Amino acid sequence: MTQKSQGNVIISLRDVGVRYKRRGGLFQKPEYFQAFEGVSFDIHRGETLGILGRNGAGKSTLLKVIAGIIKPDSGQVVDYGAVASLLTLQAGFDAELPGTDNAILSGMLMGYTRRQVEERMADIIEFSELGDFMDEPVKTYSSGMKARLGFAVSMYMTPDVLLLDEVLSVGDKQFKKKAETAMMKKLSSDQTVLLVTHSESQAERVCDRKIFL
Amino acid sequence: MTAHDWSTALTRWEIVRSRFPDHPKGYVRAAEAAEAMGNSRYARQLKLAREYGNAWLEGQSSNDNEVHEAIALPRRRTLRTFWDLVWTKARLNLKSEASQNHLRYLWWILDPLLYMAVFYIVFGLLMERGGPGFIAYLLTGLVPFQWFAKTVNQTSGSILSGKGLMNKVRISPLFFPLVGVVQNTGKQALVFAMLGVFLILYGLPPTIHWLGFIPVVAVQLLLMTVVCCLVAMIIPFIRDLSNLVPTGVQFVMFSSGIFYTLDRIPEKWQSLFFANPIANILYQYRRIFVENQWPDWSMLGWVALGAVIGLGIVLWLYRRLESVFPRVVLE
Question: Is A132 in the B-facing interface, judged by CB distances under 8 Å?
Answer without folding.
Answer: no
